[in-house]
Design goal:
alpha+beta, Jelly Rolls, 2 domains, six-stranded antiparallel beta sheet, about 20% helix, about 35% strand, oxidoreductase activity, acting on single donors with incorporation of molecular oxygen, incorporation of two atoms of oxygen, Cysteine dioxygenase
């Protein structure tokens, strides 16, 4: 079992959901609401949703604990003990017209043995925890819990299945996930090799992550820019260039009129035309061919000029690794992808240097933003892979910009060019520029 995921079980909210504790002392439940995934004609019915009820039962099916995820309130009750929360991060919040329009979600972790009840928003992790209760006063009831049921009462049952349908490759309007363990904290950065005891203590190694992440790690742990250029462009070294691929890329993207600079300028102009920041751009170079096990290319070389950054985006529910091949990249990690402003402060910021790798999984580190605020052009290698169990493979990444929720296909900016032709062009334009300087 991988620590960052444990084993998530996903179920559809078009009926009552039953979850058994079995022999486990702990159970984690995640609820995510995506109103924008409901068709326009069904929105009036979806807007009837007022609350989702999570009820913990004993072996006699008597309620021991009940949590109501309601509009503008979260109510926790166990016999005579009642707590109400109105923190906007853990309630079902609406706009000024009392409509559910923004992506939102909560997680609830209950440990019967330690009597810990934890509640947070977005991804289930220590950084997103909003409330923590010790259930000592109702200990005898909590320790009797054997199962959980989850349902809603506001939308008519005959309509609910139609609301919960989605096209292949799209997110369901309501998603319920559960797993057996709450992982308090994991390092987001994997080093190629731990150098000392402190790094081992911080968990900065590739052990105990999922099989998918380990497979990606094994594929790219030794990859450097020189190896990419030699593998993809055997003619490159025969040109007699004195600079490695990283320096050629930096030169081409930074010098006005060079190949990569021209492509970048076109992307910046398109952003400006759409009303977005021209610096919210970078270059994507797909390696190999499209892979059915990933959304787009499985391996992507990404080029980050000085002051450029990405949108805040997800990764279509994939596992992934980001390896820094050159320069420095800042990574902002978010709890959830939402156009609700109060949910979109980063929960963690990392500074990744050359050789560092940061990872992502379907339910952990899935939403991030990359930024290069350092003079050297940064180059990263992105690697993606769906779980073998994934049935609904989404081919689009989703992102938020200016509080707008959008989707994009993760395509290469060099779709019509062979990789070795690109490298040869970079060498040629560098050589030509320096010939002109020497004349």
């Amino acid at each position: 079992m991988s620590e960052e995921e444990a084993v998530f079980q996903s179920q559809q909210m078009d009926q009552r959901i039953d979850i058994n504790f079995k022999d486990e002392d702990e159970k984690l439940i995640l609820i995510e609401i995506n109103p924008q995934m409901v068709s326009k004609e069904l929105q009036p019915q979806f807007q009837l949703l007022n609350k989702i009820i999570i009820r913990y039962l004993n072996y006699a099916l008597q309620p021991c604990l009940e949590i109501e995820y309601r509009r503008n309130e979260l109510k926790i009750s166990s016999y005579k003990a009642v707590v109400k929360l109105d923190d906007k991060r853990v309630v079902m919040f609406t706009n000024s017209n009392n409509q559910l329009i923004d992506t939102q979600g909560i997680w609830i972790s209950l440990n019967k043995k330690t009597l810990d009840l934890r509640i947070g928003y977005g991804e289930a992790r220590v950084e997103t925890q909003v409330s923590h209760y010790k259930m000592d006063s109702v200990q005898q009831y909590i320790q009797q819990i054997t199962s959980v049921i989850i349902w809603q009462e506001s939308i008519p049952q005959q309509i609910l299945p139609f609301l919960m349908q989605c096209q292949k490759g799209q997110i369901r309007p309501i998603r319920i996930h559960s797993k057996d363990h709450y992982i308090a904290q994991l390092s987001e950065v994997i080093l190629q090799k731990c150098q000392n005891i402190l790094e081992l203590h911080q968990g900065r190694q590739a052990l105990h992550l999922s099989t998918e992440i380990d497979n990606l790690y094994q594929s790219v742990q030794k990859v450097e820019l020189q190896q990419i250029e030699q593998l993809e462009s055997p003619q490159y070294l025969q040109k007699g260039a004195k600079f490695n691929l990283g320096e050629l890329i930096h030169h081409s993207v930074a010098i006005e009129g060079c190949k990569l600079n021209q492509i970048l300028k076109k992307k910046q102009a398109a952003n400006e035309k759409s009303g977005f920041d021209p610096y919210m751009t970078y270059l994507r170079l797909g390696l190999g061919h499209f892979n059915k096990d990933s959304a787009g290319h499985q391996f992507v070389l990404e080029i980050w000029p000085f002051k450029h950054y990405s949108t805040i985006h997800d990764h279509a529910g994939q596992y992934g690794l980001v390896k820094i091949l050159q320069g420095v990249i800042d990574v902002n990690i978010y709890a959830i992808l939402s156009n609700a402003k109060h949910l979109m402060d980063p929960i963690k910021t990392l500074t990744c240097n050359k050789h560092d790798m940061t990872w992502l999984a379907p339910r952990v580190n899935q939403v991030h933003q990359l930024r290069n605020f350092y003079p050297q052009t940064a180059i990263t290698l992105q690697c993606y892979k769906y779980s073998q169990k994934t049935q609904n493979k989404m081919k689009q990444f989703n992102y938020v910009v200016n509080e707008q929720y959008k989707g994009f296909n993760p395509l290469s900016d060099f779709a019509d060019l062979e990789l070795h032709d690109i490298f040869n062009d970079l060498v040629q334009e560098y050589s030509n520029l320096h010939k002109q300087k020497n004349i």
